[in-house]
Amino acid sequence: MARPEEEEREAALVRKVAAGEREAFDRLVLPLVPRLLGIARRMLGSTSQAEDAVQNALAAVWRTRQRLEPDRPVLPYLTTVTLNKCRDQLRRRKAARLFGLGQDAADERDEAPDPEMRVGDTMALSQVQSEIDRLPTRLKEALVLIAIEGMSHRQAAALTGTTPKTIEMRLYRARKRLRHAIDFFEG
């Protein structure tokens, strides 16, 4: 939980952003970009697409900066907008595959793995990531927010507009599908 002085600093920045101060926007969002990129990278399986999603999210937040509320934390709002941009990209990707346009999702993956992907068994990690990519968007969101980002069920529910019970069920289903796919791969 943020300390009161951090909350007041953020609230002051939000007020400046709402007034149109670009420098305040940069100071507000730049420290949060790595976390947003991590979420987008895990949702999309591609660093370049994650960068596009975060850039689009930040542009959208800047355009609608009057919606920012000084008394509410910015990270959950930015995370929600970023997730929405990821969903948009996933829908476009699915539509492109449906109509035979563009590359297969597996071809869209980055060639060079992130440093965290180099740890451990590369083949197994690649299979897990591939299976995560195949999860339906709602299940993937729950998995990324809870298991990877370490959010609580309540936080994830607030970001996705659902209930903690719904998040719990989605997480259960995502893990079950992954377990089944990995058991099939190993067996």
What fold name stands as the CATH topology of the largest domain? Rna Polymerase Sigma Factor, Chain: A
The Rg value, from CA coordinates, equals: 18 Å
Indicate the overall shape: globular
Give the tally of structural domains.
Answer: 2
Mean pLDDT: 82
CATH architecture identity of the largest domain: Orthogonal Bundle
Flag low-confidence runs.
Answer: 103-111, 116-121
Account of the protein in words:
There is one protein chain. By secondary structure, this protein is mainly alpha-helical. It folds into two domains: 110 residues, Rna Polymerase Sigma Factor, Chain: A (Orthogonal Bundle), CATH 1.10.1740.10; 75 residues, Winged helix-like DNA-binding domain superfamily/Winged helix DNA-binding domain (Arc Repressor Mutant, subunit A). 73% of the residues lie in helices and 0% in strands. It contains ten helices and no strands. The longest helix is centred in the middle third of the chain and has 25 residues. About 8% of the residues have low confidence.
